[in-house]
Amino acid sequence: MNSNKVNIEIKKLNKNNIKNIVRLESKMFHPDECFPYHTIRLFIIRGNAWGVYYNRELIGYYFLLPYKKRMRIYSIGLLKEYRNKGIGTFVMENILKYSYEQGYHEISLEVRTDNTTAINFYKKFDFIVVERLKDYYEKGIDGYRMYHIPTSRNKTA
């Protein structure tokens, strides 16, 4: 998938990308929030991991977890210096389009309740908060479960 607006590519990740994703996560998240090597490896082996490239440089990724008729955005990350440039929008539009083309009827994700930047970003794509998840991330850190259910207006993003 290429973007005509900016020089972005989204490609499925393979085993050669595992260490790169580990390094990328260490730049984006607190060490306690990073996935262990074996989790990243599992998503890649199962074909549920995509890399986001800008000028051939890996700048982000996302993991999807299909379950019955729902696609779960398990993790999504973009290096800070590439945010607010339209790249996240391009990525989310591709996730939504791909998920619905694959026959999933809804898309879900979880987000920390104190991550207002991410919550507002997801709301821009018509995600709605459906549940508060007490102590979801750790004791005292709640999460929201959010859903995107297609309508004729937002199905193909």
Give the proportion of residues in helices: 25-40%
Poorly predicted spans: none
Q: Work out the count of structural domains.
A: 1
Topology order in helix (H) and strand (E) letters: EHHEEEHEHEE
What overall geometry do the principal axes of the alpha carbons give?
globular
> How many strands in all?
7
| Overall pLDDT metric | 90
In CATH terms, what is the fold-level topology?
Aminopeptidase
Query: What is the tally of helical segments?
Result: 4
Distance between the termini: 15 Å
Name given to the CATH homologous superfamily:
Gcn5-related N-acetyltransferase (GNAT)
Q: Biggest sheet: strands, sense, closure? A: 7 strands, mixed
Structural class: alpha+beta
What gyration radius follows from the Cα positions, in whole Å?
15 Å
CATH class: Alpha Beta
Strand fraction band? Answer: 35-45%
The spatial strand order of the largest sheet comes to: 1-2-3-4-5-7-6
Per-chain topology:
Blueprint: E1 8-12, H1 18-28, H2 37-45, E2 49-54, E3 57-67, E4 70-78, H3 87-101, E5 106-112, H4 116-123, E6 128-138, E7 141-148
Parallel strand pairs: 4-5
Antiparallel strand pairs: 1-2, 2-3, 3-4, 5-7, 6-7
Helix pairs in contact: 1-2
